[in-house]
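Our preliminary data section would be incomplete without showing what the modeling component actually yields. Below, a chain of 247 amino acids is followed by its predicted structure, encoded as tokens that our downstream tools consume directly.
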Amino acid sequence: MAAPALVALAHGSRDPRSAATITALVDEVRAMRPDLRIEQAFLELSRPSFGTVVDRLVKAGHDEIVVVPLLLTEAYHAKVDVPSAIAEAQARHEGLKIRASSILGLEACFLEVLDVRMREALKAARVRELDALVLAAAGSSDSLANQAVARLARMWGQRHKLPVTAAFASAAPPATGEAVRQFRAQGRRHIAVASLFLAPGFLPDRAAELATEAGAIAVSDPLGAHPELARTILARYAVGAVELVPV
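Predicted structure:
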């Protein structure tokens, strides 16, 4: 029996850097599991669409698919958009089994990726001293999603024994610039901002712009293609594949 296909489902963006980053991340996953059929797809704004990828897999003979949503928080896209896309695809293909795994989420191991990106940013800015950090995320009207970011920020602060605050690019306060200014009002001058985004795009660019205007000494790139993220995608796939097995 062939293993279920894996579809890494990202949100999508008008910014071509976003799709390129997702492609690079999926290539990392393929390198780890060359035995699997692995495809990338997008909910909107980028191609290929989820429906197109599902049609392609069905045509190739796949009747089981595990979808791993490349989303960092359990907010609207995870709760509404992903189930809707799956229901629509299943309605078009009788007998097709599609299982959505848990979202990529915010794993503690992602702190390693944050550290890598931050070291890169500090090196580029020629900065060696830090006295505060800001963890910038997209933000959501879902308070639980924002609380998940705040928890990761606390873990990151404990890891480096530095004050860390979560900030958001939309839908929730504080904005990155406001978070930087709050630290500066406390007398802290060496404040760096980490981009808790999967890929480049409008929101991470805006968060970086506001942080820099407020006096941040460095802003890291988004998480991007990294083996820790690729391993997490495969872990989500493994659970989803088991759940497809009839009991």
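The chain has eight helices and eight strands. The mean pLDDT is 96. Preliminary results of this kind motivate Aim 1 of the renewal.
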